[in-house]
Backbone:
């Protein structure tokens, strides 16, 4: 049995607490909760077997937990994560693992005892559609990748969302906008499936659709070591949005229309246009000036259930008790952070950025943005009354 403490009992923390309370995770016992706002933990004050804290340091040192799940605002993922790791606890952190690469490196460096399980909540990795797409690409079935187009604009948020928390959509409170809040899952999938680019050139529009100081629309162009290119587009100001992957390789093209907020039970397929002759072979040998290689239209079936957050949390418990491999080792979380940082850095410096990113340079720029911020933390906070589960896109 793993004794778990949940640190941060806002929207995401409550979502995890509901799953735990419903008994969705075996061999896991909630023994502590923590939030700086006493109202968030009021329901647990007198609950038998659960201790409530308003200071994460006290929970971490209480002896009541073997592991912690961190669901706080972004900057605290690093500081609380480091503290928990240094005190010998297992750690599962929400996305992103840190706001910027330099902090991610500090957090990862604190994981010195590899007996401690250190994981990230990248629940989209459990989706069979993305697992099948990854297998198609990495098995070489579509040949060397030439181009990737990823459009994820089904992250629409009204201003009420941003006004629901003073820390939201500020450089000081969140460290960015759509890239740091909605897109860590998407960027994690991107690098998990396609690998990391070597160069990024991006345009990030700050407060284009909302009265916020951070980015709510992004268009990025990427280059890869093998010569492939990629385009990534995202926004929280577009509705209805699009969620579409298109990956072109030498042996064909795969298209995945993910859809918005679909059920976790998946019965769908990937559209694979399969060339009978590899494109570049046809390019060099054909005498036809206008045609292309013959192809097949193949529906690649995808069936199964995406376990999402519960599957990642169960995997975390199984890794602690049974030594199972992690779905999402936290160390891999630095890649999505680096991609987000590189896009912002490229846009704000108006130049292409080579990867690996200079984490110290980005951190210095972020500190300047915080110092120059005119808005700071928003003073107007709108009480949230809607269902947080509606935020889970595909």
Residues:
């Amino acid at each position: 049995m793993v004794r778990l403490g949940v640190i941060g009992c806002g929207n995401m923390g409550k979502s995890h607490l509901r799953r735990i309370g419903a008994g969705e995770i075996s061999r896991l016992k909630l023994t502590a909760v923590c939030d700086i706002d006493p109202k968030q933990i009021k329901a647990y004050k007198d609950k038998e077997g659960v201790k409530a804290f308003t200071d994460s340091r006290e929970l971490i040192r209480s002896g009541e937990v073997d592991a912690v799940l961190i669901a706080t605002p972004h900057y605290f993922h690093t500081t609380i994560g480091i503290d928990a790791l240094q005190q010998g606890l297992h750690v599962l952190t929400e996305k992103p693992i840190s706001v910027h690469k330099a902090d991610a490196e500090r957090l990862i460096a604190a994981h010195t005892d590899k007996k401690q399980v250190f994981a990230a909540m990248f629940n989209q990795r459990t989706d069979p559609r993305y697992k099948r797409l990854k297998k198609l690409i990495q098995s070489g079935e579509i040949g060397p990748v030439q181009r990737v187009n990823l459009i994820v604009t089904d992250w629409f948020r009204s201003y009420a969302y941003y006004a629901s928390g003073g820390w939201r959509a500020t450089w000081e409170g969140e460290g960015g906008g759509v890239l740091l809040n909605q897109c860590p899952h998407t960027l994690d999938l991107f690098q998990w499936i396609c690998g990391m680019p070597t160069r990024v050139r991006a345009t990030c529009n700050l407060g284009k659709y909302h009265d916020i100081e951070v980015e709510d629309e992004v268009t990025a162009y990427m280059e890869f070591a093998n010569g492939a290119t990629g385009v990534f587009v995202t926004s929280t100001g577009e509705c209805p949005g699009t969620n579409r992957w298109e990956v072109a390789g030498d042996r064909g093209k795969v298209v995945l229309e993910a859809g918005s907020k679909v059920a976790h039970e998946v019965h769908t397929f990937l559209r694979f246009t399969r060339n009978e002759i590899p494109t570049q072979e046809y390019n060099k040998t054909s005498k036809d000036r206008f045609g292309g290689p013959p192809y097949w239209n193949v529906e690649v079936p995808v069936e199964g259930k995406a376990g999402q957050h519960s599957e990642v949390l169960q995997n975390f418990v199984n890794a602690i008790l049974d030594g199972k491999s992690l779905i999402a080792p936290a160390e891999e979380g630095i890649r999505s952070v680096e991609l987000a940082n590189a896009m912002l850095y490229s846009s704000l410096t108006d130049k292409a950025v080579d990867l690996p990113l200079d984490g110290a340079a980005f951190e210095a720029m972020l500190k300047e943005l915080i110092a120059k911020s005119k808005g700071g933390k928003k003073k107007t906070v709108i009480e949230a009354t809607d269902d947080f589960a509606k935020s889970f896109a595909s």
Notes: The domain at 125-306+336-391 is CATH 3.30.360.10 (Dihydrodipicolinate Reductase; domain 2). The radius of gyration is 22 Å. The chain has two domains: 2-123+308-327, 125-306+336-391.
